Amino acid sequence: MSITYRTACKADLPAINGVIERAVMTWRLPERVKRLSLPLYRYSETDLGHLEVWVAEADSGIAGLASWEPAEAADLPEDKTGLLLHGLYVDPDRQHRGIGSQLLNASQARARQLGLDGVLIKAQADAEPFFQRRGLERLPVRDESRDYALRYWHRA
């Protein structure tokens, strides 16, 4: 399977949202929770104006995507600058083929291009092993009322 990586465009939104929907529906959460939260995960034209979105495109269409935006300083490790990985999704039928790793590496490369220190990831519980296997640094919770519990740092 040949994969190309490129910036997403408006015409990609239906396929992007299809990948997100199929990925979210595999999460170990109650069906009702997945169904009710799914609209919050879908991307719109407005999102394309605020996020940098990359897609992994295979012969049969979009196989995965990653999106990022500048991270808030309060969320980052002390004295660091970075991007926030807003989303990383791979179609369940195409997982375990390196697509997610390539998209994660694209976010890291973009951080380097921008002169930033790294990429902050707020992982969904089912995705945590993916980030752990890549040796990313798990960030401690400094403020339980504010910090997301499953935060990882990917140095640029």
Structural features, described:
The structure is a single chain. The two termini are 28 Å apart. The longest helix has 15 residues. The chain is globular, with a radius of gyration of 15 Å. The mean pLDDT is 94. It has five helices and seven strands; from the N terminus they run E-H-H-H-E-E-E-H-E-H-E-E. It is 32% helix and 27% strand. The chain is α+β, with helices and mostly antiparallel strands and 156 residues long. A seven-stranded mixed β-sheet has the order 1-2-3-4-5-7-6.
What labels would you give this structure?
7-stranded mixed β-sheet, 7 strands, alpha+beta, single chain, 156 residues
Mean pLDDT: 94
* Percent helix range: 25-40%
Model regions low in confidence, pLDDT < 50 over at least 5 residues: none
Tell me what portion of residues adopts beta-strand conformation. Answer: 25-35%
Q: What string gives the helices and strands in order?
A: EHHHEEEHEHEE
Reconstruct the topology from this structure.
Blueprint: E1 4-7, H1 13-24, H2 31-41, H3 45-50, E2 52-58, E3 61-70, E4 82-90, H4 99-113, E5 118-122, H5 128-133, E6 137-138, E7 151-155
Parallel strand pairs: 4-5
Antiparallel strand pairs: 1-2, 2-3, 3-4, 5-7, 6-7
